[in-house]
Amino acid sequence: MNFLLQQLLLEPRRSLDLDNDQLNLLLSQARCSRLMGALALELQRIGADELLSPKVDRHFQSARLIHEKQKRDLVYDSDKIKMALDSVGEKLVLLKGAAYLLAGLPVGRGRFISDIDIIVPRHRIDEVEQAFIGFGWETGDIDPYNDRYYRKWGHEIPPLTHRKREITLDVHHNILPPTAGPNVDASLLFDQLIEIRPGIFTLSWQDMVIHSATHLFHEGEFHHGLRDLWDLDRMLRDFPERDPHFWEGLVSRAQELQLTGSLFHGLNYSQQVFNTPLPEGIVEAAASRPQMFRKPLMDFLFLRAFRPDHPQCELPLTNLALNLLYLRSHYLRMPLYLLLPHLARKAWMRRMSKEDGA
Amino acid sequence: MELLKQLAPDTFSQRLRSGELPLRIGPYIYNLQSNLAPVAEGIGTLYGDFEIAEPDEFVDYKVALVCNGVLQRLRGQAEFLFDNSNPFDTIPVDQAYAFLEWGMNWCVSLHTNEFLKLHAATVSRGSFAVIMPGVPGAGKSTLCAALGLSGWRILSDEHAMIPPGSTDVVPVCRPVSLKNESIQVIRSFSSNAILGPLSKETHKGIVAHMKADTHPDSHDARSLPAQAMIFPRYSRDEPQRLSRRRRSDSFVLAAYHSFNYSLLCETGFEAMKTLIESVDCYDLVYHDLDWAVKTMDALPGLQDRQ
C-alpha cells in the first residue's frame, strides 16, 4: 500500500537515490496532493536541496518561495481581519492552515493555504459580517438558494472576498453544520483558546487535532485528503511535546464535543499511512464498538482515498471507494429528508445553468 | 539530437497520443500529450524544429490536452491536464490548440520562480536584447511577430525571464499568440508567417499562433544581455512616437507587469533594480507596423552590437 510520496515525506533523504523517472513521479504526486511545499521544506531541512540537481530543486525552491509569500501575506491580512473584528469587540480565532502558519507550528511547514478560516460565536455572526463588509470584504455572486442554504443549514456564512486583496475569508460559527449527527457545542471551543500573537488566537492543541480530523472525515472529496492526514500526523508528533497532558485529555475532549468518531479515524489513518507514534490503546479508546466492527470496510475505503490523486497510485476499486465516501459524507452531513430535496435542487440548478450557458 | 520534424508522421502521432513527446523548450522540458487532431496539427506545424529530449531526462512540465470518456466525446469537450489534474474548466475541442499554448504559459507563470519573470515579449538582434512588457491588447505580440518576420530573433512572446542579479534574458522561444485582427495584420505584413490552427470563439476571440523559431539562433539556449526596455502601445488615435521614459517610472511599471516581483520579495526588488539600471527605457506608440519595425531597427546603441 506504500507509495513514493509517503515514503519521501517520512524519509526525505531517499530523494537522493531516485532516478529521473521516479523524481517525475514524486513531483506529480506531490503537486496533485498539494504537498509540494511540505515536501520541499522536508528536503531543505535535511539539506537535500543542495544535493539534488538544480533542475529538479528549482521546482521545490519555487514551492518554498510560494509558501514564504503566503506566510508574509498572512501576517498582513490577519492584522486587517483583526481590525475588522476589533471594531465589533470580537476576537480573531484562526482555524486550519492559517492557524498553523501564523502560529509557526511544524504542521505549517510548507503548508499551502487557499483561504483564511476563522470562527466567531454564532450569536455575533451578523454583526461580524457587517463589520467585514465595512472593511472592504464582499460576498461574491451567489444565487439566493445557495445563500439561504448557507445561512440556514451551514456552519459558516457564504465566503467573503476582499475587494483588493483577492483572498477568501470563511467565517464559521461551528465546526460542523447543525444538520450533522454530532451536535457540537461550539462555545466549548472558545473556553480553551491559545493566543499566538497579541489578540490573535487558535483553538487549543487538542481541539485543533479534533477539528482537523472532523473536517477531514466529513469531507466528500479527497483531493486534499492526504495533505489533511499529513497535517494530523505533524500535529500528533508535535503537540505532545508542547503539552505533556496532550494525550490524557484528547479522547475525553472529543467525547465532550461528540466527535470521537472522527478522532478515531484520524488517529487510525494517520498511524496507518504515516506511522504516527501513538500511545498504546488510544485508537481503541476512541473507537465505539460499531466502529471497530466496521473498521475493515472503512480501512478498505479510506486507504484508497489517502493516496495521491494520480493514475499510478490507484488501487483496484479506488473509484468505487471514492464514490461511496462521497455518499457517506452527505449522509453524515444531514438527514435524508433534507439531503434528497437538496441534491435534487442542486442537480436541477446545474442543469439549468448549463442550458443557460449553451 | 533529434528534432520533432525528423520523426516519421506515424511515430509522431503515436508518441503524442501516448504522451511520450518530451520537447526541450528554453530551459525546460515539456512532455506533451494529446488525442486531438487540431493539437497534433498545431504541434506539427509550430514545433517541428524543437529538439526531442532523451527519454530518461527529468521532465519539468507534463501537460496534456485530451478528450476523454464518452461524455466529453459527445459534448465535443476537451480538458487541459497538468500532472494528471485539471486546473481549468473543460473547453470546446475547436479551442484546444490555443488552450494548450495558454496551459503551457500557465506552467511557467505559476510554477517557475528561479527567474524574475515579466509579462513581456523579448526579442534580440545580434547580442542586443529588448524586453517589451505590455498588458494584453497593448500590441506586444503583434509587434513581436512583425519583428520576428523582419530579421529579429524572438526570445519569447510571453515571459521575459531574468536570473536575479544579472541583466540577462533567458530565451524560452514558443509560438507567438495572435488575436483577432492581428492575425490578418501579420498575414498581410509578410507571406512568410507560418500560422498554426485557428481557435475560434475563445474568451480572447479568434486566436492563431505563429511559428517563432525561424531565426538561425532560435534554439541557442544561452542568455543575452538586455539593452532596452520598451513599453509598446498600439493606438490609432495618437501620433506614433518612440520616447524615453524615466527609469524610476519604468521600474514601477515593470514591477506591475511582473508575475513574481512581490513573491521574490527583496530578491525581486534587487533583481529589478539591477535590470532597470542597465537598460534604456522607452514608450513606443504605434499603429503602423512597418514604422514600428524601422524604429526598432534604428534604436540607439543597436548598430554597435550587431
Characterization of this structure:
- The complex is a heterodimer of chains A (358) and B (306).
- The model of chain A has no long low-confidence stretch (mean pLDDT 89).
- With 358 residues, chain A is of the alpha/beta class.
- A seven-stranded mixed β-sheet of chain A has the order 3-4-5-2-1-7-6, covered by helices on one side.
- Chain A has one domain (4-357).
- Chain A contains 16 helices and seven strands.
- In chain B, helix 5 packs across helix 10 (289-297).
- Chain B is built from ten helices and 18 strands.
- In chain B, the strands form three sheets. In chain B, strands 8, 9, 10, 11, 12, 16, 17 and 18 form an eight-stranded mixed β-sheet that branches. A seven-stranded mixed β-sheet of chain B has the order 1-4-2-3-5-6-7.
- The model of chain B has no long low-confidence stretch (mean pLDDT 94).
- In chain B, 32% of the residues lie in helices and 30% in strands.
- In chain B, strand 14 (199-202) and strand 15 form a beta hairpin.
- Chain B has helices at 9-18, 37-46, 69-75, 96-111, 140-148, 181-189, 247-256, 261-264, 266-278, 289-297, and strands at residues 2-3, 21-25, 28-34, 51-52, 61-66, 77-82, 91-92, 116-125, 128-133, 153-156, 159-162, 168-169, 176-179, 199-202, 205-210, 224-234, 241-244, 280-286.
- Chain B folds into two domains: 2-111, no CATH class; 116-174 and 212-301, Phosphoenolpyruvate Carboxykinase, domain 3, CATH 3.90.228.
- Chain B is of the alpha+beta class.
- Classes of the chains: A alpha/beta (358), B alpha+beta (306).
- The A-B interface holds A 19-21, 23-24, 27-28, 31-32, 53, 55-56, 58-59, 61-62, 65-66, 68-69, 72, 309-311 and B 56-60, 62, 82-85, 111-114, 260, 262-265.
